[in-house]
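fyi for ur records
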Amino acid sequence: MMAWNDAEGGPSFSGPRRLLLNDEGNSALHYLDLDAPERNWRYDGAGRDLQLIGKERVLRSTPSGYVELDLSARGAVVRQISIVGLPGGIESARRLSNGHTVVAGNGGGGIFVWEVDSAATPVSGRTQFFGGIDKVRLIRLTGEGTFLFCSETNDRSVIHELAWNGGMRTLFEVPDDMPTDSMVKAVRIAPHVVTVSTGYAASLLVIDTEGRRALRTVGGKGHPEPRGADRPLSMFFFSGYQMLPNGDFLISNWQGHSAERNGQGYQLLRFNPAGQLIARFDQTLFPTIASLNNVIALDGLDTTKLHDEPNGVLVPLLPMP
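which gave:
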């Protein structure tokens, strides 16, 4: 199925063929195999974050915990966990290589980051609450064993870094001349270099955190429209994204809180490392999709292994000693 179009408007095979697509508009998760559509499936339920956790399973955050779905059994629920005593609703959930899970969310006048064991019991010393901080969405592990997340703090967009033993620090405060609004996901891709999706600014920033400057801006509200497109790109809100092994970025272009957004814009965009749009996904070929806010391209990944993106690209994690 030619669901991908290139920058000139023609059909393209430059987009991945097997996709996990999180659909906030319909509160659903879609699995698409563009070469074998009979294998497609849909899981219904609220959630935002996605992670391959091994054994052919995907971990998906839920407002109260997480759910594990079997990729080899059309998204069948293997395990569903609710965590007791949380100060608010969960936005993000990440499985660690020791079998524990880190969750992050909003509530109680701030944000929280908890680590729980395999029985969903909080780990001593690893239930942190930070008052006066708003809008945590996705949290990500770094190669140094710390965690990155974004917030809106005192009308400032901030990227934070958390170390269990060292507390939380401000890694980067976005200056006024760098458009952001409700940032979603920050990932360290090299020493002192972080990528972050900027939310309503509809861009991905590549930031030098040591030099305190943006190295590149991918997308943005002023991005030119591709020739031959059936409709505008509708650069609205850049949310979850994936850095591919060749340095390309696959970015979800969320279109709002509605089940009626299928025909709006192109909700999955592929840019090369220089920031050029090279492919766009036509979600209108799949009428059950509404408004996409996260993605994992499964092409080339071993779904029997736990994956995360400590240095930008999704890679298998080694078990903790």
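The domain at 17-313 is CATH 2.120.10.30 (Neuraminidase). thats all i got for now
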